[in-house]
Structure prediction request, 408 residues.
Amino acid sequence: MTRQSILIKNVRPFANGSWQKEQNIYLESENAAEIDGNGLLALPALFAIGVDFQEPAKDDVYSFADGFEAMRRGGFYGCLYESKANPIDDLHQLTSFKLICEKSNLDISLLASFSKANEHKSISEMLELANGGAAGFGDSGVFPENLRFLRMVFEYGKATGKTFYFHSLEPYLCSAGVVNEGFYSDTMGFKGIPEQAETIAVYRILEFSEWFGVPVHLREISCKKSLDLISKARERGVKVSCDVGIYHLLFDDSSLLNLSSEYRFNSPLRTAKDKDALWSGLLDGTVQSISCNHFPVRKQDKQTTFEDACPGSVSLEIALSALWQITAEKTSGHPERLLKWLGAGNLNPEKPANLILFDPNLEWKVEESAFAGSVCNSPLLGKTLKGKIVGTYLGNIVRTPIPPIFRI
Prediction:
């Protein structure tokens, strides 16, 4: 198919760290069209962390095709992908995943597992995986119970030169807990997960990171005390970064009063003070990024009792919309700061590689049709958001959730 130019008229780009004047942008794509932006924002595309499609081991839940479509709808040109259902623990697995991802025309970085079959009993061939193109190593969302094994991971992992990613929740302290330990767990009679389950795991990781000189990234941090530990470790020279989950910025444990299992996550929603601390961490640089924590769950695994429900949610399609308005409030009118936290690249208006067309004033209701595939497990389902993606240009493919924006 012959590639043709596309003209996007009257858009306001965010490029080189600032808002540009309203202008026209030319693209090249396999789809020919003229688009009247009519004052829309032209934003750089995003890069997601915390992504797991649960495929191919659970392709009855979600497929790679569903996940790639979710990324395109949400304006993500790439992601850091880790598989819990089918861990990347040898070169064969890594090669298989790379071949699948290459077909997406998106930038997919693969996180390998540092243990065989995610069992935390034997170490994977980390050097081979690093040399084969693994972006880093992770625990697939389950923190190792055996401290001796964890120490070996750092000891052998140092030779790879890669960053190690941890979901910091100590399993024994979590036990059968399903929500944050505190007022609301007592009120509803749920077994709680104390903040020490996170802070003790964070402390252990930071100790090993400092001793062996291995850079670490702590995922889905949920409480203020963990941020304090991270900040102090960074002052000592520890190479540590961290992220917070999208829904931990939107909700606290008071949301649990409606008993909806959509509010059950791997890291529990903490207190309102903790939620405020997460925002403060983003604003002062203690927290580097926002994780999408995109983890599809079947309806039947959510539509059950809160205790029995599978934790997790999807968010790629709605992340930008969900956070745009609240970021504007938290930053006194600078919602563009969200772009950095969601991994946005730099937009070159003269020759863009990827971009998002965004209407910050459009109010819309989140319905099942907004999500790719048949999975839509999100606490925002049915809620009204302000700000919506109305078109994307990712990997030479133009997509427009709102067809009238096109004039073919």
Observations:
- The longest helix spans residues 196-212.
- The chain has one domain: 44-330.
- Residues 44-330 form a domain with the TIM Barrel fold (CATH 3.20.20.140).
- Confidence is low (pLDDT under 50) at residues 402-408.
